[in-house]
Amino acid sequence: MEAHESGTAVETKHHVINIVVEVDGRNRHVRFETSPITGREIRERAGAPLTDDLTQLVHGKPSGGNIGLDDLVAIKDGDHFIALPTGTVS
Amino acid sequence: MTAETIEQAIRDLVAAYGDGVRTAHEGIRTLVRVSDVELPPGCQPSRTPMLIVFDRDQAKPIPHVQPEQLLANGRAPRSTSTQIVGGESWMQFSFNIPWAEGQGIIRSSPPPVSGSPRMTEAALRVPVGLGHSLREEVFRQGRHEYVALGLVASATLAGGETLLLRRIFTLPEDEYVDAPGHDGAWRGAAMIPAIEAAVDGGLGLVVFHAHAHDGPPRLSGDDRESAGRLLPMFAARVPGRPHGSVVLSRSHAAGLIAMPGAPAREMTLDVRWLGASIVDWRAGTEPRSSDSSLAFARQRLVVHDRGQLTLGGARVAVVGLGGGGSHVAQQLAHLGVGELILVDPDRVSRTDRHRLVGMMTLDVLLRQSKTRMIRRAIRRIGMGTRCEAVTERIPGPVALAALARTDVIVGCVDNLHARADLQELAWRFLIPYVDVGVNIRAIKEPEPHGPRVAIGGNVLTLIPGGFCMWCSGFLSKEKLATELRGPDRSYFENREGEAQVVSLNGLVASQAVTEVLQLFTGFGGTGVGLSDLALDGRPGTQRGFRKLDGVRGTLEDWGAWRRPDCSFCNSTLAAGVVAWKTPR
Known about the structure:
The complex is a heterodimer of chains A (90) and B (584).
Chain A: E1 2-6, E2 9-13, E3 17-23, E4 26-32, E5 37-38, H1 39-46, E6 53-58, E7 61-63, E8 72-73, E9 80-84, E10 87-89
Parallel strand pairs in A: 3-9
Antiparallel strand pairs in A: 1-2, 3-4, 5-8, 6-7, 6-9
Chain B: H1 3-17, E1 21-26, E2 29-38, E3 47-55, E4 62-65, E5 81-85, E6 88-92, E7 99-100, E8 104-105, E9 122-126, H2 130-138, E10 148-157, E11 160-170, E12 184-186, H3 192-201, E13 204-210, H4 221-237, E14 243-248, E15 253-258, E16 265-274, E17 278-281, H5 297-312, E18 315-319, H6 323-335, E19 339-343, H7 361-366, H8 370-381, E20 386-390, H9 397-404, E21 408-411, H10 416-429, E22 433-442, E23 453-462, H11 477-485, H12 502-521, E24 534-535, E25 538-542, E26 545-549, E27 554-557, H13 567-572
Helix pairs in contact in B: 6-8, 6-12
């Protein structure tokens, strides 16, 4: 769904954006109907913990730094993201 | 076994396992069942019932475990058979219970080492300099535990699957986060540079951290949980390499390692730190000396018991068994090196007699192979050195496979192409390489009473991570091209006209053997930092580039430097074998 604000009226177009989010080495296929979306929405839809960092994958490599929970991301069909868990040791 | 000894053994087992011990008698056999025995880490399952059969007609008790038991390497034990014992199915196990008649089970002693002491679950090799940096980071004292991300290649070498550390990434302090319940926590995005480099290089990722104590470490539940999320993510990025989470103590290492295509398994690791000497952290029981003879008594004053034991377990390749190699191989046997890989495709000829130590008249008549001749000489020395003969030229597949399993390579070859091949092998698999050579040239117009010949030579000690032959200018494309226009690549042939003198060969060969002795025993120092290799205390100048002046009678260490921009080092050091992947 694509929303265009024009004066007081809101015009909405419907189309589907399919992205892939890799969580723990597994690809989760997630569907959105709007762009941009927040980092929180991507994590929640993909089932990644909100404490994970998130970044885009380009040619198999993390690219562009962490996408915060409230950061807006313009997505397009086929985009690939990866959740990077917080590492811990004890 | 006497009845009294068996009774004592049962009392020992009850003392160790309490109510979990049951006994039964079947004919002349006494069966002892222990309900829950913990096997070495990585065995699957890790806990199992065990049956021990005491048969008075046998010299030792025979252990059995449940069928389908797997060793830590994921394989079934060797020399096993499934039998019915006491009406149940058991698998006879190849484990050798430490046993002494009259004492029963010797619980205070580690099991004797059988076969190669190299058997372990996985191994890690660390180049000189990198190990120092790694330890500095993970043992750093601070407000939390510190980690380092290692990039590793891999290969199947002497210790089984071996991780070869190529590079480490440390994390800036601001990438660590406060996380209650954890001793150290870092942001996922902090790993992006390391992941990028791993993808670019096709390398595995290993998270290192430390528990600052002696003895074997164990991953905490927190370590395992975190690795449980990180390792699949690493494997998805670079599927063809092992990935892991490794904890170091001050003497041992253990970790959760995911080999390509396999789930992560907890395992212990042999770690080899390269430096002024080879420093090994062994995952299993340290081998104990069985040699009580006086054969090495005076050498032990220099290398100590531990050094002698290390020599006895060492595997050294001698490539080229001519004037230099014949000295080297036999001196290594005198030192008590456990196994020699002798590489030379040639047979002896009449012109070799003046310089091949150990050669006999009959060898000429029989046109004996050099490997066989040297093996005979080593057998006569009688120090128990095992020999493997490889009559193939470097870089033939049989020779390379044999060399990849060695601890140290000594190159006694007579051309630069062979040296380039050995240099590559040594760097790729992190094997120290000692190179020797002598070059005698006539002086065309000598002074009336001056020298008639110039005698040069070299003894290079090349420690992976330090300078290489390319860094030092010993090898260059121009030199190799020049050589191609001269003698061909038949390394051990067509050099018959070249001047050779046994004493000069022996001079550099003796120094090479002393270098090998230092590598295994560390009599001159054991540091693993590049500064530990500094020549005469000059930082940045590494010792090990020795040049012979045979006329003056000097063997002087000129020193050399590792060049940060050396394309050979940067591409080949710890590269292992390539990881194949399916094209997209």
